[in-house]
Amino acid sequence: MNNPANNPDPNKKHPARILEIVNRGLTKRYRAERRFRFYGLMAIGVSLLFLSLLFISIGAKGYSALQQTFIKLNVFFDPDVLRQESLANANYQGLVKNSLRSMFPDVKGRKDKRLLYGLVSTGASFQLRDMVLQQNDIIGKKLDVWVPADDDVDMLIKGHINREAAETDRRLKDNQLAWIDQLTVEGRIEKQFNKTFFTAGDSREPELAGIWGAAVGSFLTLVIALILSFPIGVAAAVYLEEFAPKNRWTDIIEVNINNLAAVPSIVFGLLGLAVFLNFFGLPRSAPVVGGLVLTLMTLPVIIIASRSALKSVPPSIREAALGVGASKMQMVSHHVLPLALPGMLTGTIIGMARALGETAPLLMIGMVAFIVDVPAGFTDPSTALPVQIFLWADSPERAFVERTSAAIMVLLVFLITMNAAAVILRKRFERRW
Amino acid sequence: MTPATLFFVLLALSSAAYYVGRRRAFAVAGNGAGIQQLHSRPAYYGVLAAIWCGIPALILFGFWLAFESTVITQLVVSDLPENVRSLTGAELNLFINKIYNMVSGNIVSGEITPAMQAAADHYRSLQTTSKASLAVVVISLAMLGLVGVHARIKPGLRARNSVEQVIKYILIACSTIAIFTTIGIVLSVLYEAIRFFKAVPLTDFLFGLKWSPQMAIRSDQVGSSGAFGAVPVFLGTALISAIAMVVAVPIGLMSAIYLSEYAGKKFRAAAKPLIEILAGIPTVVYGFFAALTVAPFIRDTGSILGLSVSSESALAAGLVMGIMIIPFVSSLSDDFINAVPQALRDGAYSLGATRSETIKQVVLPAALPGIVGGVLLAVSRAIGETMIVVMAAGLAANLTVNPLKTVTTVTVQIVTLLVGDQEFDSPKTLAAFALGLLLFVVTLILNVIALYVVRKYREQYE
User: Fold this and answer.
1) Distance, CA of B279 to CA of B248 (rounded, Å)
2) Core-most of A291, A331, A398, B138, by most CB within 10 Å?
């Protein structure tokens, strides 16, 4: 390094020589300077590149899940099939099959027929049943009904299935492609908004699967986590910051809290499994247990944030309150807490956002089960949004890839909303003394 | 009365007690004129009444609910006929489970014996009795508390001090939850881990070179030995974490340096939150990204270069994990670089050093302890990271340091061993807790060192 300060003594006598030495090194040093600066910029560029790659890859995969392919069937609600006494479990599958057969009368043979029926989702019969149960008077009529297509058809329409591939490598056979083309020409195939995705629970059939069940599960879990962790976290922070004497006991608590904030989340899952499930015998897969585990996990975050919010309240306010005769508890609850509350809420929202994205501990307590029903209470079996993403990511069907990405987009929207709320809260109520 | 209704009844009683207490305070003060004789403001008398009405009852309520099923089960079991009680542990458990199922109206497998039916009826009747007596006991306790306080309310009663004392105890109780959590983690993991180490010696676990946690169902099964040598698992964890750190430390550190030393205010205000978004993305999203975008990309690139890359390579998982950790390293380093006093920089500049020379020779050495602490925290996070490796790394425990091969990690093994059906007497399940114990201990040591270093460093310049 050409640091002039390090040069030996003899140079002292010749300032001109020093200048010469320094100048000789300058270009090299300036180049090093520019290089270093460039590395820094590169590092930021690389992180932002990764960030945009992540978003783009998920957005590109996921946006198509907002639409779903539907097939228009001409269904004859046959009074012979739909007898009044057994409307709920009549042969609706038969109605779907009949209408498909009437559209393609020249399809013969069991195998071909099965391929034909495969174009329409198994959910179609449930849709017909709901229609009939809602309006009895459609029995005997012939109606055009849009029913969801099978996920393979959906994938073909969205261009994810290669028509050129050999027939054995494709999930759709040649004659199925021909039927689909014919339907397209007739205008009987159409992409519509995928309402199912936002209103249904999980399903093994991608075209019937939705995130509503998981979203409700996440919501219930977070409610439990919030009503437990916020009061407890604030109370703990108030004690540690305002009342606790400085001694070994409070030191232990502090070290503990800092450590817990850095304990891997899966370890909290192990705790939940061993204590809440095995010891206390709480139900598996239930939001209440998930909420308890996430409470323990987010408590350190909330405590740390609340403590720093309390720390930023200037001591003069405390002294003034004490000076006019308030007790210590009154000083805290009337003056310090209200001033620190925005900071505490910000910390809580950030903690809740982290809890919303957490998956690993929920896997441990059995929230990975395949659950079709939307949970109605805190002890019903349920999953959570991130767990649903994990489950779908594992599914082999191509159609689940786009649904996984779409679910991720929904999760990210929630997270961004929560974090934005935290930022706004901080901006609006932040006070500098 | 269901527990939920009872809970709300208690809350209602408690708030009623508040009004009763306050009214009483006004009454004993002689309404109006005498109010100055009260030691505390009237509301405090109300709160005191509410506390004495609600809290003891709630505590009893909680304990009752926690131990109700255990006690009832004990009672039912002790009343079972002799031939049932003499069953072995597992059979008895099965029997009790069937009773539970019958009580909750589920379908019971196998035939229902009269003894079982009787036991279920017994259980149900005990449950009803317990519910009824819980309601009676809790409500009378609440009333008792209210009446007791009501009688004690006099102008001289130091209500505020009592209320504040109680609140203080509640605050203390809340702050100790952190300790109980730690104790809970240690005990629950340790207990199962000790059971595991009874079946598999500790040395085999720590130094064994083969990990294949299958247990034989039949004794003549092939390949059923069940090997619990955790070295390949540790090595895989270390490999993936190392890759992650190789990605995260240079990028994180350089961006922190640029942001704190070079960037203008506007650039910093825009870039810093953007980088921090990376920290807020759920790990399951990273896992999906690693498994569906990065891993195929690496595999295809590898095959173009003529390398055979496993589709669940350590490289993909490590790379994505590194991306996740970048903001962690960068924001901690940023803090520490900013904490270096400006005087040190000015000194270096005045000697003619360029900016990068100042950073490299003055700022970084001064911030080094803090940065090292931050990196240690990041390592502990990489070791404990679960979802990325579960989705993008493999299950096969290969003893290799080749980043293109499949390796497995501690967290992956815990998840695979514990998701699904569990038997809490098979070493296979217990092995997960042994791994969990190890994970906890290792991250704890890293955290303690890191937090100590960071704390020590923070004090240095404050």
Assistant:
1) 12
2) B138
